[in-house]
Amino acid sequence: MPFALLKDRSLISVSGPDAEHFLQNILTTDLDALGADEAKPGALLTPQGKILFDFLISRAGDNGFRLDCRSDIADDFMRRLMLYRLRAKAEIAKQDQVVVTVVWGDDSTASFSDSTALADTRFRDVAVKRAYGDAAQSGGDAGDWQALRIGNGIAESGSDYQLGDAFPHDVLLDETGGIGFKKGCYVGQEVVSRMQHRGTARRRVLIATAAGSLPPTGTEVTVNGRPVGTLGSVSGGRGLAIARIDRVKAALDACDAIMAGETAIMLAIPAWAKFSFPQDAASAEEA
């Protein structure tokens, strides 16, 4: 049974009688749709709709939530939450040195000890569980976890995009349940809703493949010398790229080579995703 121990994560707890109302009013995730056994993706946005912080959120007790985020952004994230808290009756605290255990496959609920296994709802084609607390076992391979993310088109900040530089649609939060389109207002909601209703999302996460090894993360993806995107996480000959789908479709239609540095690559939409390449790529690019 494949598993990995993620040691670069921190947990921010938000608890108290106003915790849910407070978070519902600022985060993209619809907490009304968050089950007790789920960890859903989400983001705190800038007023302009860009991702300021990304995380997985789950319930913790009757009036509490845990925000699972990168350790290197946890302090800034907590300070921003405190800034928005105002008079809400909600306690915000950070837990460092957390080991997150992730297990995937048919028997992903097994081998957890003294911890609650939660379904990572970002994944559609494979069962993935996350657990917080004491590690259920030692070892594991973080490289296998990265390969799993890549194969399923699941992007994360830091390795795949920079915070402050991407809209939720760019990293497929609209498709992985990270945006509540039926909930009320939240920070950046107007921009996100406009992109959804107008169908103007042009940058998307795509899966990159090459005959050999891909170049490193951050390599520019080009067509005829023109930039169309950037390579993110890489595992051998597969990786993630955030790219302009109109320009990728135009290249595919014209049989133009798509390059990551000096390496020829193919770009494909994740199998589970509902979005598609624009039918008229030339018109979309001019719009």
Overall description:
- By secondary structure, the chain is an alpha+beta fold.
- It has helices at 19-24, 74-85, 142-151, 189-198, 245-254, 281-286; strands spanning 3-15, 38-45, 51-59, 64-70, 91-104, 117-120, 128-132, 203-209, 220-223, 226-235, 238-244, 258-260, 263-268.
- The strands form two sheets. A seven-stranded mixed β-barrel has the order 1-4-3-2-6-7-5.
- The longest helix is centred in the first third of the chain and has 12 residues, at 74-85.
Keywords:
287 residues, alpha+beta
Secondary structure topology:
Blueprint: E1 3-15, H1 19-24, E2 38-45, E3 51-59, E4 64-70, H2 74-85, E5 91-104, E6 117-120, E7 128-132, H3 142-151, H4 189-198, E8 203-209, E9 220-223, E10 226-235, E11 238-244, H5 245-254, E12 258-260, E13 263-268, H6 281-286
The spatial strand order of the largest sheet comes to 1-4-3-2-6-7-5
Query: What Rg is obtained from the alpha carbons, in whole angstroms?
Result: 19 Å
Q: Total number of β-strand segments? A: 13
Strand content: 25-35%
| Order of H and E elements | EHEEEHEEEHHEEEEHEEH
The shape, in one word, is: globular
Which oligomerization state do the chains in this entry correspond to?
single chain
Helix content: 10-25%
Q: Structural class of the helices, strands and pairings?
A: alpha+beta
Major β-sheet profile: 7 strands, mixed, barrel
Poorly predicted runs = none
Separate helix tally:
6
- Intertermini distance: 48 Å
Q: What is the averaged pLDDT score?
A: 92
Give a quick rundown of the structure.
With 287 residues, the protein is an alpha+beta fold. It is 19% helix and 34% strand.
